[in-house]
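Cross-check.
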Amino acid sequence: MECDDLSTENQLKITVEGIDFPKDEEKRDAVIKEISETIQRTVEEQKTSEPNRITVSEGHQFAHLPAECPRCGEEPHISHLTMMSEDKSIANAKFECRHCSYTGSAKYRLVDVETNKYNSKKGREEYRSIVADGDVKPQYQPY
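Predicted model, tokenized:
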């Protein structure tokens, strides 16, 4: 089933915190698959619609848009990046497509910070996500 309406009205996000997943990758994958199948079955039992995609994954998630014009798909020109005065984790920028003249305001949010940490297994420094490492708890907000 292909869904043409990608609005937030047709999406459900479920966040469950504090789950102790099995350490074994196969067992963890089996638990995730079972959760996904349970959601699929429950939605289908409601007989209101059939979901076209169910994604269940562990860990933190963030939204990501492709760096392309929503009208023509060409690469946009981004300029005039400005930090918001009241919230330094948000910045606005001018979004222009020189191919089709589409314009808008791009919104940037701080989603992670990578820090250089020593990896003793590899014997070298590497960049690590402070979110994935659990050093910071992200906030989730609806649009």
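The longest strand covers residues 77-83. The mean pLDDT is 83. Passed to J.P. for a second look.
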